[in-house]
Automatic annotation (TrEMBL):
The gene is pdhA. Residues 37-317 form the Dehydrogenase E1 component domain. SUPFAM superfamilies: Thiamin diphosphate-binding fold (THDP-binding). This is Pyruvate dehydrogenase E1 component subunit alpha. It catalyses: N(6)-[(R)-lipoyl]-L-lysyl-[protein] + pyruvate + H(+) = N(6)-[(R)-S(8)-acetyldihydrolipoyl]-L-lysyl-[protein] + CO2.
Amino acid sequence: MIARFDVRRRDYLAPDGSAKRPLPAFTTDSKLLVALYRAMVLLRHFDRKAVALQRTGRLGTYAVSLGQEAVSVGIASAMQDEDVLVPSYRDNGALIWRGVKLEEILLFWGGDERGNDFSGPVHDFPFCVPVGSQAPHAAGVAYAFKLRKEPRVAVCMFGDGATSKGDVYEAMNFAGVHKLPIVFVATNNQWAISVPLRLQSGSETLAQKAIAAGFTGEQVDGNDVVALRAAAAEALAAARDGRGPRLIEAVTYRLGDHTTSDDASRYRSAEDVQVHWKQEPVARLRSYLVRQKMWSKRDEEQLAAECHERIEAAVERYLATEPRRPETMFDHLYADLPEAYAAQRRELSGENDG
């Protein structure tokens, strides 16, 4: 025997909202727990509205977070403002927590890149749709932090399918070699579009994939926002303290379709989905808050009304946004636009008419 490794699993709240073990110190802060709950509920309401917009032709293809709201909210809540979020396309909860406006998210999914020029921290990265391609970028960000001796951390979020991509392995290997201040978060929602986890990885866990890169991987109950915040806070502190990268595998379940262009009923059974509805994160935290007398039916009704008002106002602003003129597609290609493109821009803008 020359080496031995283990992978630990973290969870605190049972599906019924009861505490399985002593909770982290931050759970004594009722305002924080309520804020986490409110953020998850807002995301769920927002997703529902976005799907309705897509179905009525007012939004493009959209990726819902149904069932995995705790991951993006829990991770983002532990970050500092100066940290850098490098998200995938299903991390709206993290963006909203960090200050991105709802109408900006709708702009992006409506095909308008101005949605990526969002109101969150200017150093956060835009949506990344190609699977796993943001991981090397995140490693580069973390390398810059180390070179500059800045106490900042890059947080790179992706799905389970991304762990089968070379981009992610290369980024993790580079991060491990250089002991970079980066936290990788793999949201294991069991499905890479229609491909189940068992057909995309032979590993018993995704967390153990960090071992080959030389750092710690931890599996976390992705339906337990308390566990996610605790794991993220610990990983961020370690990275910020110069102890290198971490990988968090958040085990959850994608209750909805992959996107509005998908029909998940073609590759999984309704019975399987129903089992996972009993474990979802929003009801779990609500049950805990009610048990602790931190939340009431009146609070729930008021929150639903607030979410509706906020979302409807954002939709109005989104729909009222004037479309960009076609020639603006050339505006950010080059510092000095080559003549071949400049001529096309003039043609589109009508400068060549007459």
